[in-house]
Design a protein that fits this description.
With about 80 residues, this protein is mostly helical. The protein has helices at about 20-30, 45-60, 75; strands spanning about 10, 15. It has a two-stranded antiparallel ribbon with strand order 1-2.
Length: about 80
């Protein structure tokens, strides 16, 4: 998966409506039976994209088990 760019959207009742970019749509179309990885900078819409993907997958009749792993440099510096 390539880098995503910031999502576009409008505000509805004070909540931004998610409208994925072309790159984010590519992520949302990724086959659910294959692992994927998204590498992108801060503010590029990674969280909105993964929430949208999880939501769509859970609506399916045979909803898959979903495992998400996130990492930030700040988390990597935390004492153990």
């Amino acid at each position: 998966m390539g880098a995503a760019v910031a999502c576009r959207g409008s505000t509805v009742f004070g909540v931004a409506k998610y409208e994925p970019t072309r790159e984010q749509r590519d992520i949302l179309r990724h086959p659910p039976d294959r692992s994927g990885r998204v590498l992108a900078g801060p503010g590029t819409g990674k969280s909105a994209t993964v929430v949208s993907l999880a939501s769509e997958l859970l609506k399916r009749e045979s909803a898959p088990k979903i495992r998400l792993l996130t990492f930030t440099r700040a988390a990597g510096r935390l004492p153990r």
